[in-house]
Amino acid sequence: MTELSRPAAPAAHPDPIIEIRDASISFPGIKALDKVSFRMFPGEVHSLMGENGAGKSTLIKALTGVYQIDSGSIVFDGAPVSFRSTAQAQEAGISTVYQEVNLLPNLSVAENIMLGREPRRWGSIDYRAMRAQSRVVLDTLGLDVDPESMLGSHSLAIQQLISIARAIHINAKVLILDEPTSSLDADEVAELFRIIRNLRDDGVAILFVSHFLDQVYEIADRLTVLRNGRLVGEHLTPEILRIELVEKMIGKEIGTLEDLEQRVRENDQSTPESVPFLRATGIGRKGSVSSVDVRIGEGEVVGFAGLLGSGRTEVARLLGGIDRADTGTLEILGDGIRLRTPRHALSRRIAYSSENRRAEGIVDELTVRDNIILALQADRGWFRPIPRKRQDELAQSYIEALHIRPANPDAIVRNLSGGNQQKVLLGRWLAVAPRLLILDEPTRGIDIGAKAEIQKLVISLAENGMSVIFISAELEEVLRLSHRIVVMRDRRKVADLDNDDLTIDNLLALIAEGDADEELGETA
Amino acid sequence: MSALLARIVSSRLFWPLVMLAVLFLINVIAFPGFFSITVRDGNLYGSLIDILRNGAPMMIVAIGMTLVIATRGIDLSVGAVAAIAGSVACSILLGAPDPADPGTVAIAILTAVLIALVLGTWNGFLVAVVGIQPIIATLILMTAGRGAAMLITEGQILTVNSAPFKVLGAGFVWGVPVAIYLAAGVFLIAVLFTRRTALGMLIEAVGINPEASRQAGVRARGLLFLVYIFAALCAAVGGLILTANTMAADANNVALFIELDAILAVVIGGTSLAGGRYSLVGTVVGALVIQTLVTTVYTVGIPPIITMVFKAVVVTLVCLLQSPTTNEALAAFRRRLALRAGKEAVSV
Question: SS3 of A101, please?
């Protein structure tokens, strides 16, 4: 498994600066990394690819000493290492620049670059040396920034470059950039890439993590793909087609293909083209998605497909009233409406189940019972409590229907496994009897058994007339469950597929960008 | 047996109750008559009664504070609100032709409570609508409130003479001090109000995970108004008892630092300052611990100079006992107990 064929090492640097061999990391109920091997060469930009839950951040955390690997080994600069903290990793020469700049906005640029390693003189900080050294580092990056200015007075892009300057000053041999471009505009990205190339030419190994395929193809020399905590492959960027890459990231199991096309046909009971339950025309939100049309019939399952950051979640949040749309119109059963709050959406029988289960879904210190009745109780108001007997009935019925374990309504939700937490959350939304249920990544990070149960549930809900929007990074799953699929790319809707167009090749081509037919021809 | 012990040790009320028991023990040793309650003129007297009666205002304020803290908030203005309530009541009584008229007293009390309602709404507005951090939002009223109370009393200590009003602080009904009834009443109202309705669960949900609660359709804004208003009402009741006790409105000194004792009572009672699950019973025990501590200082004869230090030591102890690190160590201890229990079962 680990002896996958790998492309050759670069001629100039035949030995990797850092190499992970057969590393595994487990968390309760989930294997986050399963015998993953990964290597980076000096003087190369390496991109780590994978969807949510693929294990990218776990791998980065293993590299930087945040997590310890359960098995396997890490070799850095020719010697086995086991970092106990990020500070240790940083000291050794592995620096990370995160998406959110984690420096101190109310200190000066120089102080931020030198933080923790200030030049000293007579026991106090030598500010003159600090300025001079910062100047040198900034100059090597070609950054025209006053070292004495406040960090917070600069744009996010500059702050990010200053974090890189800090990493350079620590003498980083490996520089990890985690989603560095997600909040930058085109010019800023160009500036960042210029700096990345300079560093690469100086022999630094750079790990560039981004969900923007264009940027990966522009900057990365080599890439490693992970899926579900496993290594899928390592490739030289020019040698892998975009569509192949997406396929590897999302997964395509030929064996199940027939089965799922069968499924699609069975599902195709052609819902009568009367008034759809919900029709959105041109909805969008500044800085998020622009001008998306969506139509969902009663009893219809509509899949949203697209890569992370494509806008699939953003549209779902607009439809669920979580974020307010500032353009476009929305009709529910023909009535025009503006959804102001989640509460408002719920009153119109639309429930949105967040992709972010921990932060926006479960209330972890409360019991299973309280979590299940929460939305229903919120709707009934403060002074009409659901009678205890009814609460128990509700909790019991969802525990049974969804196979929640432990089957104890008094269990604190925090102590449940991810899959069971997800089921509790589903129970909450089902308890309000929605007519449109929006499920954003309901199967992420949960075990196979729970996944299959949730898929089955979606099918039976739709058969009973509930409309469902189903979002998942796993294309196979979306295909299996959906009557129709809305494909998103770059925060726009690029296709609305149904019936015969619902094939995995079609979807892959659309998601990967470019003209569908052309690319299909290429791969065929 | 060990399993039962483990359950008891893991209860949130365990350490506060142990603390209370230890304090009682110290008192009994220093003063053997500590537990004795005597009946004089049909009224109950004794150290325990004193603790309950003197602790009542702080306990009432702490009960209000509990719900605020459960929403991740804090209310620093309760002392100021208490002072305003007392000042308003006294100035009305002083201005009335007959301060001893029960009707006048009722009006004075009602006005004080109504003003507290307005003040609580103000705090709720700042926190829920304007979105100011609770500690800052209530700091405004904490500082401004004492000033307002000074304006009401015109800088004087207003001394009143009104028998019906005095009942609030020093009266007895069926042998038990009125302040104790008031504390019990506020406690019962808080429990019924939050546990017999959906309020308690929704308050906890908002305190634990505001965004998840919003997405589930919980109206957090209304809940925030409610808890700050309730806290202010509790503060007013506490302030009225304290004022009635001395029969004087001292805008500068009445209920001074009561917010700190109240917060402490809540924390000792096991409600986390991070919000979420709260325990009103815990708060009552916490308030009793603090009040008993004050009494202990007198019975044991600790010199007043080191009273504050003594209090600090006890509070540090309680906080240590409740810290996550200590809890982890205790959890390890419990696991050992359970393991041993398992082994015993096997060997039998």
Answer: coil
